[in-house]
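Protocol step 4 of 6: structure prediction from sequence.
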Amino acid sequence: MSLSAGGYAAARVLPAATDATEVLATLARDAVLYTLPLFEMARSRAVMCPRRDDDGRFAGDSPDSTVCWINRLMRDRQLLGPQHRKVVTPNNDTLYISAWLDIGEEPLVLTVPDTANRYYVLGLLDFYTNPFDSIGTRTTGNGARKFLLHHRDTPPPADADLTDCTPIACPTRDVWLIGRVLVDGPQDLPAVHALQDRFLLTTLNGGPAQRRFDVAMERRETAGDGRRYAEVVNATLARNPPPPAERAGLARFAAVGIGAGIDASTLDAGPLAALGAAIEQVLAELDVPHPSALGGGWFLPVEVRDSFGGDYFTRAHVCWNYIGALGIEEAMYISADCDSEGRPLDGRHAYELTFPPGGLPEAHAFWSITMYDKTSCMLVENVIDRYSVGDRSSHLRYDEEGLTLRFSASQPHDATMQHNWLPAPAGPFYVTLRVYIPGAAHLEHRFPYPPIRRVES
């Protein structure tokens, strides 16, 4: 599906433009749908990139500088809880290991250790948020390996010794490496910390990879102002041109100030107004709830393998709501924000779902269900510090009907349900079922997801 033809038709059929204002409005909406992932990746990089390194050195001249360290592995040491606010819909099952990479100047070598039987994945996202490749248990195994990350248009040097190094061609100069290492509870953290420290990122000659880079954005910036949006996107397009097949279509967006090399400061009032209105419109469209396509209240918000292709609406929706999501062959994130009757989930009510005997999620790595506050998309603070349950939760109780879970803000009176209780906020919430390395029943949409039933007022 080409950018200039049907790339946006799946989202909404637009009426034929009859005047210049409608033409600008249509172009601006298409431009925002196409480029929102670039803005959100740049914004996420500005938020996440460290301002100082392990030696305490600031990359810039102050903690508030926009100069950061890139090509540096960041190793989260704590399982995420309600106090962590950087990433929406975070998981509570793994420790993250991540890096924002620039492979435009030279390739980088990523060394991974032998993880024995422990699941891990290092997902690779291009700057358009396509999960183009991954390293880990499913794809490359758990043994010790080395990988050479290089730009697809720049092959590794001819004299490079790649005998023990697997090359990976990256579609864009800027890449987000976002990895997860499975943790079996708080007592397992020291072992995972030791393993994390054995993941290394170096230059081709073995030297330090980290270097200074100006992310050119403040940490709290958000999409909104049309001129600033164009500035960020245009700078990002210059570093990360789209695939050749999409460049002709992208050229149309110059009419609303979007394109590599376009100076956003010269935008006239008409295109600037159209761009600002389009940002507001698109973000409102991306916030519309999903239908319960899987039944019982469940839906699959992300269904991508290694590329979104020409489905720019879905790509924008995922980047806005679930940025950093992996391809479904690696992980499926099945979510629910309504009960089986279509009513919004609210912690002032109580809900149950039952996995029948032999009907647990089919996961070749692990599965879990995590609770989120609908208003913030963050984990929910609660009195028992329980944020998720899953196949590693030893406290769960099974009976002849299988496994019944309870969602509510108030603690159940029943002793068994207390073991199987996932605390909710006293207001709107949603839950996400994560299935890592899902079985065929999930990938082929044959798995019967249990209905979420309201059981009391």
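Step 5 (inspection) to follow. The chain has a mean pLDDT of 92.
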